[in-house]
Write a structure and sequence with these properties.
The chain has 160 residues and is of the alpha+beta class. The protein contains two helices and eleven strands, in the order αβββββαββββββ. The protein has a domain at 49-159: Immunoglobulin-like, CATH 2.60.40.680. A hairpin with a 2-residue loop joins β7 and β8 (115-122). The protein starts with 11 loop residues before the first helix and ends with a strand.
Amino acid sequence: MDVPGLQVDEHIDFQRRYAKVERIAWVCFGLFVVIASLGLLGGVGPLSDTHAASNGLRVEYGRFERMQSPLSLRVRAESATAGVARLWLSRDYVDDVTIERVVPEPRVVTARDDGVEFEFASTPSPLDVLIEGKASRPGVIRGAARVGDATVEFSQFVYP
């Protein structure tokens, strides 16, 4: 409709396309918030942490991590014997994660062809070790932990 003195171009097709793009963007933002709150981007959330267990050995770890951000691996072994306990981590994991701290501090750390072995003074209570570090590359990081005869395999996804 043409009104004398008022020159407004409505561009109805453009406005419809713009509204459609805006709705798609809002849906994408909403999905991002839901994904982040579930823990699929790392950090905190019901899907962010997991564990693997076998024969009294339990490894707790973050399922999703970020490269060069702090990560932790908790190893608990019910079958650790009194005197000396040895925790072995696979070469795959040690090559992809820079280990910065081990709590409690091991008495001896031995590098082997297939991984690294930490030796702890064990008490009658279960062995409980916290390993802190940073992932040095993005992608899937696979690893294995062994205490005594029990071995557990695990994997983490590292975002760039």
